[in-house]
C-alpha cells in the first residue's frame, strides 16, 4: 500500500469539520498519471495530492475521476504540509504563507474550472437544498451578514464520481470573491471555514486552518 497522509483543510475554529485531503509525499512511487488516477479513486477523497518535488513545491492534483491543473483546498493543505514559499501547479505558481493558525495561498480565480455560483435569499434556503443531479458544478451561497462579508455556502460537484457534496471548496471561494470584489468569511458544508481577500491585479488570497488527521 502506498504511504499517504490525510489532512483536514478549512477546519472550523475548534479544529472540527474541514475537507479531507490525501497527500502522497513521495510522488515518485506512482509516477504515471493512470496510476495516480487509480489511487485517487481508491482513496475516494474529494482530491488527492501527489508531491513531485517537496523543496520546490511541485504538486499534482486528482479527484476520484480527473486530474486538475489547480484546486484550492489541496493547495492550502500542501502549503501547510510542505512549508514552502510557493507551490508549482500545471495552472501556475501559487504563492503561500503561514500566518498563525491560518495557511494562505494566492492564486487566480480563472485557474480552476468555472463553477455555477447560485445565490439564494437566506442561509436557511442553502441549508435546505437537496443534492442536485449530476451534470453541473453548483456553488450555492447566501449572505449570513452582508455588511460583515459572512457567507453560507454548499458545494455540489455534480461529477458523478461518488462525491455528492464537497465539504469545503477553495476554487469556488476564489471565484465568488472575484465576482463580489470583497473579502469573505465563508462557512461551507457542515461547518468548514474559508477566508478570502482580493489582491492587486486580479489575484485572490485564500486561507484556512489545516490539521493532520493521520
How would you explain this protein's 3D organization?
This protein is α+β, with helices and mostly antiparallel strands and 214 residues long. The protein has 4 helices and 14 strands. Strands 1, 2, 3, 4, 5, 6, 7, 8, 9, 10, 11, 12, 13 and 14 form a 14-stranded mixed β-sheet that branches. α1 links the parallel β2 and β3. α2 crosses α4. It starts with a strand and ends with a strand.
Features:
214 residues, 14-stranded mixed beta sheet, 14 strands, alpha+beta
Task: Compile the SSE list and pairings.
Layout: E1 5-11, E2 19-24, H1 33-43, E3 47-53, E4 58-62, E5 67-68, H2 72-82, E6 86-89, E7 92-99, E8 102-107, E9 116-119, H3 123-127, E10 138-145, E11 150-156, H4 170-180, E12 184-188, E13 192-198, E14 204-212
Parallel strand pairs: 2-3, 9-10, 11-12
Antiparallel strand pairs: 1-2, 1-14, 3-4, 4-5, 6-7, 7-8, 8-14, 10-11, 12-13, 13-14
Helix pairs in contact: 2-4
In short:
By secondary structure, the chain is an alpha+beta fold.
What sequence of helices (H) and strands (E) makes up the elements? EEHEEEHEEEEHEEHEEE
Q: Mean pLDDT, as a whole number?
A: 96
Q: Give the count of helical stretches.
A: 4
State Rg.
16 Å
Main β-sheet: number of strands, strand sense, barrel status? 14 strands, mixed
Class of secondary structure makeup: alpha+beta
* Number of DSSP strand runs: 14
Strand content: 35-45%
Amino-to-carboxy terminus distance: 15 Å
Question: Helix coverage percent of residues?
Answer: 10-25%
Q: So what's the overall shape?
A: globular
Segments where pLDDT lies below 50 for 5+ residues? none
Amino acid at each position: 500500500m502506498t504511504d499517504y497522509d490525510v489532512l483536514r483543510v478549512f477546519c472550523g475554529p475548534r479544529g472540527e469539520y474541514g475537507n479531507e485531503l490525501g497527500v502522497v509525499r513521495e510522488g515518485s512511487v506512482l509516477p504515471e498519471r493512470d496510476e495516480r488516477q487509480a489511487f485517487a479513486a481508491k482513496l475516494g477523497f474529494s482530491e488527492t495530492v501527489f508531491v513531485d518535488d517537496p523543496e520546490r513545491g511541485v504538486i499534482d492534483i486528482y479527484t476520484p475521476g480527473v486530474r486538475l491543473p489547480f484546486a484550492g483546498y489541496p493547495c492550502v493543505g500542501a502549503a501547510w504540509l510542505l512549508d514552502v514559499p510557493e507551490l508549482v501547479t500545471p495552472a501556475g505558481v501559487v504563492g503561500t504563507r503561514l500566518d498563525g493558525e491560518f495557511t494562505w495561498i494566492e492564486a487566480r480565480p480563472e485557474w480552476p474550472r468555472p463553477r455555477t455560483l447560485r445565490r439564494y435569499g437566506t442561509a436557511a434556503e442553502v441549508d435546505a437544498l437537496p443534492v442536485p443531479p449530476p451534470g453541473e458544478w453548483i456553488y450555492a451561497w447566501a449572505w449570513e451578514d452582508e455588511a460583515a462579508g459572512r457567507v453560507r455556502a454548499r458545494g455540489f460537484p455534480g461529477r458523478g464520481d461518488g462525491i455528492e457534496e464537497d465539504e469545503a471548496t477553495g476554487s469556488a471561494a476564489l471565484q465568488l470573491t472575484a465576482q463580489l470584489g470583497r473579502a469573505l468569511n465563508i462557512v461551507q458544508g457542515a461547518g468548514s471555514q474559508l477566508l478570502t481577500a482580493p489582491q492587486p491585479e486580479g489575484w485572490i488570497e485564500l486561507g484556512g486552518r489545516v490539521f493532520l488527521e493521520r
